[in-house]
Structures are given as structure tokens and as C-alpha cells.
User: What shape does this take?
Amino acid sequence: MIAGVTTVAVVVSACGDSEPTTREAASSETAAIVCGMLRRWNNEMGDSLNGTSDAITDADDPETAPGVLLDGFDDLIRLAEDHRAEVEDLELPVSDERDRLLEELRGGADKAIAALEEERADIEDLPPVAVSEQRGVLGSAFIAAERAGSVVEPAIGTYDDEELKAAFAADDGCEHVIQPF
Assistant: This one.
């Protein structure tokens, strides 16, 4: 008679870090995509305004400064419009808050365009800007650009998806491009 042999497999779960869940991975990918995009936007806007500032300072011509600043804001508005179009093509992983996040990014981009257009309208009324006045005029322009940058920042801390909030909080690239928690 042959004795039956029974093999018992014991599965032991490993201690320590676990692999992220699909939801966690999707949330991390969303944070990386959104924050990378917003950081690039901030850099592009800053580079554009810095170029405008350099052109005004280097020209030292009170008559041409308002026109240079207007041209600079036209460039900022074009950038903001390009950013808005980019949101339309943005593909994010599935999450409970994906639609809300996309809508907030669209609305923020629209508000940024409006803020820049409002500042541009004020610049149209500028008289010649003497060199001694350039600092104040450029300071106002930088504040307007900062305002445009802040309105695109999504308020992730108000979202209900805990994995998404955790992913944005954990991603160092999200610092200064989303509303604080």
C-alpha cells in the first residue's frame, strides 16, 4: 500500500513595505503629471516675465517701456492660453477625483488668462516709465503674474480621495504648485 503524501504550502506574507495598490499608483502618477505640468507652467511664465523685465531695464527708454511690457503680457497670455489647451488634452489615471481635478485645472487656467488680461488692460494706460519708476511697474507686473500662477493651483487638500491627497503631499514636485493642505 502506498501512503498518500500531502503537501501543505504555507504562504507567509513579507513584513515591511508593500507594493502600492492600483489606486495608490494611479494617485502617484496623477500627482507627478499634474505637478510636473504646473511646475513647468510656472517656469515658463517666470522665464517670459524675466525676459520682459530684462528688456525694459536694458532699454532704459521711458517711452518704450510700456510697449515692451505690453508685448511681454501678450506673451504671458499666449502661454496661459497654451496651458489651457494643454489641460484639454491632459490624460490622467482613473481616480474618484479625476473629473474634479481636471475641471479645477481648466477653471484655474481660465482665471489665469483673465488675471493676465486684466493686468494687460492696466498696462495699456501706462504713461512713459522713467528708469526710477521701473522697479514699481515691474513689481506690479510680477505680482500679477504670481496671481495668475496661484489661481491655477488645485486645492487638493479639499478632495475626498485620501490616496490622491497623500500622493500630492508626498511628491516633492508638488510643493508651491498646489494649494497647501
